Amino acid sequence: MKFKIVFYLFLFVCIVLFYQIFNTNKILNHQDELIQNQYQKQLQLKDSLFKLKRFQDTFSYFSLKGNPNLNQIVLEPVLQESELRKKLLEMNAKGGLNELIDMPSGRFLIDRVKVINDQWILIGFQSDKNWGQALLEYKIRSVGDDYDFKNVKSFIKSL
Predict the structure, then answer these.
(1) Percent of the chain clearing pLDDT 70 (strictly above)
(2) Higher-pLDDT residue of 69, 88
(3) Of these four, 32, 67, 86, 115, which has the most CB atoms within 10 Å of its CB?
């Protein structure tokens, strides 16, 4: 009788241990899968950050304040960029953009201005029917703080 009780107790303990081992293995596999997924997401995020950093470096290089080669030429890049934007918007308000760029009739509004360097500006403009972009060349006039703009290349497309 004692032998049967000990045997059944031993058998019960073996079954419980086997269940624990099997269940622990499933839990560990699930945890390992979650860790691998997190690791893959982390690698993707690092790659995305690297691409964004590279894009930001390129984007800032093509600007007055981000290009280290222009530090000797342009003394106050932020001020010059804001003045150029202001002059372009004033010129557009007076209809000067139509004279500069061959555009169809209608009112165009400048929505984007990107100062590339000490000679070129990219602008984006649109109306209710058309949109376009232009590469402008600018020079500072010797008299006053005004700018001369010249259209290098532009295009206009319908919406």
Answers:
(1) 94
(2) 88
(3) 115
